[in-house]
Amino acid sequence: MMVTYMETGSIDPRYNLAFEEYVLCHRTTGDILILWQNENSVIIGQNQNTLEEINVPFVEKHHINVVRRTTGGGAVYHDLGNLNYSFITDLEDPEKLTINKFTIPVINALEQLHVHAAASGRNDILIDGRKISGTAQRIEKSRILHHGTLLFRSNPGMIDGALNVDPHKFRSKSAKSVKSRVGNIADYIDEDMTLREFWEHLKESLSGEGFVQGSLTKEELRGVEALKRDKYDTWEWNYGRSPEFQMHHKSYWDGGALEIYGDMKKGRIEALKIYGDFLAVKSMEEIIPLFTGKEFTRAACKGVLDGIRLSDYFGTITEEEILSTMFE
Length: 328
Known about the structure:
BirA Bifunctional Protein, domain 2; 8-stranded mixed β-sheet; 13 helices; globular
């Protein structure tokens, strides 16, 4: 099957994330590839506490956009030395879904340039031990979005300055800063390749059997603009989900960091917020209401968790790990 290839025509992260989400939710058939770039931005994972993830003075000084995405994982920095890719396709068996299904084509595209990369951890692609790509996924009905970054010639100093990196991620590791952990693909390519040439190579390689040029209709573009305005432009979406609550517990598991805030009244959960860089594929907002009004007991919370597919919302973090965090 031929892939439908699209570009957003923008470097505004709010527009680009709206474009991607609109295509996921409204183009319900076929394989779609989108390549896109953002101007200087920090893109926050859907379940993260924005103010804890960014270096606010640095971000404000350098006029860096801060926008929340709808996929899990951790915060990432984007600039015009970075290229983003999005795969949108039919969801097959959710139980057999792995990141490798989508990272292998990217690794193969790099191999064609004699760059030896490998998947690592939960969602990274590394070259020579340095991270050049982070990925995340989202399921929407019968469709799946997989997207990732590709650091081609990004500014490591800006990455290091914009993000507040959890020091726990560096335990027992020799690399102690973001700058020392990331790499640029351009440094590993023998020829003097421009980012645009890399873009064209990636478009051809990731399309597999070939592509047809796709675009959105005027009506669809109005839908993208509306989604941008009503969601991605708003303080409530990008920052407002970072409240102050009475209970705050944080744990670190193989599946990622898990942080839970709660406001308890008369022994019941009045409000709950769950953050982390675990690889969720569905929005946490779908299940938060299930906890409201429940007794704040292990048994009551276990009852809620028993009724949902945990991997959709918490990646590989287990029920026992969630409960251990809540009742630390």
